[in-house]
């Protein structure tokens, strides 16, 4: 069994040790070291990264009491220099310790237990065993946890037997066998845990809840601690600064400015839609008056398919027509007719579209299709015009 530096001296970033064993599994080398500070995946905490003899550590896991380091190559020498990715480990220590603290506050102040923990390089969340958390309670929990951070309390570890573990006021039930590690936040919280933690609450830095999600019987709480919280703050500040410039308002007035802008945009949109509709009605009237045959065939460079829908509606109000209307920018075709004609628009489309690389269909009086190229659209338009009899 290796000496576990991540429990004895978790801040060790570089060390020399011996390779005890190397297993070759599925083309990878699973290396056992005499001493390791590479934390194996466990207790919700991801495995560490770093290098052994300059070879990147791809994964670390524990099996049968041994810690295995997965490498792409076997180290050439028995004595190896190890280097821990300290920035990554410290980040995980901050997140993990912050989670203990947040869970402790929720348990101590509300009696809410923490279910599962999800910790990765990107995200951090816990499932809180309560049906609902109000925004007020969230703020209170966040404030209380950050208050404990500022008190810079000691985070200690007790290595005990299952019998001794029972004497501690544990927030979670400890295992009933083996050696048990109880992580204590200076008389605030006792929690059995095998992960790595910072030495004092001050090292956690700010704890910020960033969101909640309702689960079946619990609430998922997303949060960020220390460096992650700072980076998130920096990213959000950048967004606020850009929005402030865009809307010419400082942070305090930004929301009301955006809301006013939204209302204005909606009113403009409504006005525009009404005007467009009036224009389409006029255009339909003009088309109907100037039509020399019942077939109206127009390809528009500046109209959407929705515009064509309105146009066809007004054309049908103005007279009896067979319409082949194309929206060139959307490469879509509308094929519709008045009741008095017999052409089956849907059937005609279905039967011939494939030859023009088009997709679509519809009913006898109304059909539509989309094309992958303008050329196919135009060819099909011409084909339909040729095919129609009335
Ligand atoms: Zn822990």
Automatic annotation (TrEMBL):
InterPro entries for this protein: Ala-tRNA-synth_IIc_core (IPR018165), Alanyl-tRNA_Editing_Enzymes (IPR051335), DHHA1_dom (IPR003156), Thr/Ala-tRNA-synth_IIc_edit (IPR018163), Transl_B-barrel_sf (IPR009000), tRNA_SAD (IPR012947)
GO MF annotation terms: alanine-tRNA ligase activity; aminoacyl-tRNA deacylase activity; ATP binding; metal ion binding; nucleic acid binding
Pfam short name (any one): DHHA1
Cofactor: Zn(2+)
Domain Alanyl-transfer RNA synthetases family profile: 1-236
Record-level GO cellular component terms: cytoplasm
Keyword field: Metal-binding, Zinc
Keyword NADP: no
Locations listed in the record: Cytoplasm
SMART domains attached to this UniProt entry: tRNA_SAD
Biological processes per GO annotation: alanyl-tRNA aminoacylation
This protein's name: Alanyl-tRNS synthetase-related protein
Organism, scientific name: Methanocella arvoryzae (strain DSM 22066 / NBRC 105507 / MRE50)
């Amino acid at each position: 069994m290796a000496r576990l530096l991540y429990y004895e001296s978790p801040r060790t970033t570089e060390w020399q040790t011996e390779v005890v064993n190397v297993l070759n599994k599925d083309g990878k080398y699973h290396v056992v070291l005499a001493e390791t500070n590479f934390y194996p995946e466990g207790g919700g905490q991801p495995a560490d990264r770093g290098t052994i003899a300059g070879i990147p550590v791809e994964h670390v896991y524990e099996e049968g009491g041994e810690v295995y380091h997965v490498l792409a190559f076997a180290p050439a020498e028995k004595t190896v220099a190890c280097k821990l990715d300290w920035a990554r480990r410290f980040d995980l220590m901050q997140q993990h310790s912050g989670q203990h603290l947040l869970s402790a506050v929720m348990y101590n102040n509300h009696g809410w237990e923490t279910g599962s923990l999800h910790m990765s390089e990107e995200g951090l969340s816990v499932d809180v065993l309560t049906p609902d958390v109000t925004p007020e309670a969230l703020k209170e929990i966040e404030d209380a946890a950050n208050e404990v951070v500022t008190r810079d309390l000691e985070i200690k570890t007790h290595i005990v037997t299952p019998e001794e573990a029972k004497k501690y006021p544990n927030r979670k039930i400890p295992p009933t066998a083996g050696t048990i590690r109880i992580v204590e936040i200076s008389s605030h919280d006792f929690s059995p845990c095998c992960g790595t933690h910072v030495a004092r609450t001050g090292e956690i830095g700010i704890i910020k809840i960033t969101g909640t999600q309702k689960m079946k019987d619990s609430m998922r709480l997303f949060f960020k601690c220390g460096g992650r919280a700072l980076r998130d703050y920096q990213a959000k500040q950048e967004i606020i600064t850009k929005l402030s410039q865009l809307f010419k308002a400082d942070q305090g007035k930004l929301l009301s400015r955006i809301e006013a802008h939204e209302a204005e945009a909606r009113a403009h949109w409504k006005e525009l839609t009404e005007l467009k509709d009036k224009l389409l009605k006029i255009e339909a009237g003009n088309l109907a008056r100037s039509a020399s045959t019942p077939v109206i065939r127009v390809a528009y460079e500046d109209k959407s398919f929705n515009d064509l829908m309105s146009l066809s509606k007004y054309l049908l109000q103005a007279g009896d027509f067979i319409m082949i209307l194309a929206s060139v920018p959307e490469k879509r075709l509308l094929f519709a007719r008045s009741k008095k004609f017999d052409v089956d628009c849907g059937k005609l489309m279905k039967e011939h579209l494939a030859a023009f690389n088009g997709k679509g269909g519809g009913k006898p009086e109304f059909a539509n299709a989309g094309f992958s190229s303008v050329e196919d659209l135009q060819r099909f338009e011409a084909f339909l015009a040729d095919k129609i009899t009335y």
